[in-house]
Amino acid sequence: MSTNFLERELTLEQKIGQLFLVAMDGTTLSSDYREHFSRYKLGNFIFFVRNLADYKAIRELSDSLQSVVKESSGVPAFISVDQEGGMVTRVYSGATHFPSNMAVTASGTGSVGRMGEMVGKELRALGINLNHAPTVDVNNNPDNPVIGIRSYGDDPDVVAKMGVAYIQGLQKNGVMANAKHFPGHGDTNQDSHLDLPRVDHGMVRLNSIELVPFKAAITNANGTDSIMTAHIIFKAIDSELPATLSRKILTDYLREELKFEGIVITDCMTMNAIKTYYTTEKGCVMALKAGADILCLNATPEIQANCYNAVLEAVKSGEIPMDDINVKVNRILKYKKKYNLDSTADQPMEKYPEHEALSDEISTKSITLVKGDKDLLPLAGKKVFIISPKPSGTIVDDIIEQKSFCKKAHAEFGGDCNFAEISTNPDESEIKTVLSEAEGFDIVLYATYNAILNHGQIHLFDALKSAGKQVVNVSLRVPYDISKLQGADCYIAAYEYTERAVDNAIKALAGKLHFTGTLPVKL
Description:
The structure is a single chain. This protein is α/β, with parallel strands linked by helices. It contains 19 helices and 17 strands. Helix 11 (280-290) packs across helix 12. The termini are far apart.
């Protein structure tokens, strides 16, 4: 594939294809998808767990997609993934599973730059050249349902420092970073996947908190080469349209005031914040008019085709000026050349013990004792009843089974203990059953998962305390659960329901490792 694609004269259809970053089903490229991608000259792709098998299969899929775009436009593709770490990890086989951003901050290791380098090295070897990370939202709202541990914390300066270090590490090894979600998703109590959030703060507040990490990422000499937009209304800049669709935000503010020269990528255009209020097809046209360069579409081929045709018609009718399309395409091609996207074939696929060692170090040092009763800990040798939500998520069943907190803790603490796995939001009947099973146990080890948002877990905690139990609580996602569990005798923050975090939290509870983590947020 020629690296002189900047000099190619693309057709209108090929140019439109460069503006899309689309998803697919399956772990191999089917003939139907090959025909679809070729027909619409689609130029960029995003992987989800459903696409990712072992590292060899991932690499083969990446190469297959590159062959399609080579044939259809002669321009290599951005192939992307959300490999944030922690609970938002797509590649499990063939890449190191690093902890979440909040756990990285809690660990105090200062290793975020090294971590970015390692992630970049692994992804590039898989043929992935764009990572939708880091999340540089400042999470200062405990009720935020979607960011939480994906953030480095609630201190904007810390988030900025960590985010820039990760960006530099990632891009150093040939993977473009995608700082998200501009102008900031940290202070919302709605999930833009489900609804259209608003941030009503004035510019003084936005400049002192939300915008700090993005400004740092933009102005740094080796800063981020792409930014992802938020489907959120920011009243101080545009009181009517979400950032993704707002020219005031993406062009007047991001481009002209902040002087960002990189690629602007939308969050997924099928999320309800766009689909419900504007429709995905109209939203795609509006986003390009606002200043976005690439439209992210986790959608069926039919929806992809509808969006492509909507954009094509908007260009032909003059609604989107051809000059604007040329500017966007030239910007995309510039960064594709910068990242030398057709050089992945010589990247080795290896397993790196030093990467696993760093991940384990971060996880081990992140486990935080927020509140402790010295007479209760460690739990080794004590008769304990263990409760935790059933592990769930988008990952494969065998990985889910491997990380079950209840089963791992029961194996550690022995036959005198017992356990109950609960639903994420237990009802009165389930709570009654668990209380009955916990009879005869004075100590309860209770792992919660976003209890602050799932009140059934709080009701169970209250019932346990009313029954006179001593409760050792472990939060397996946001550390804010303690605000609703004030009566806990011990409270440990583990930051994520992942196998490594579960193992290290249990070791700490058993007295096999020290609690060294520090809270990255104010409680």
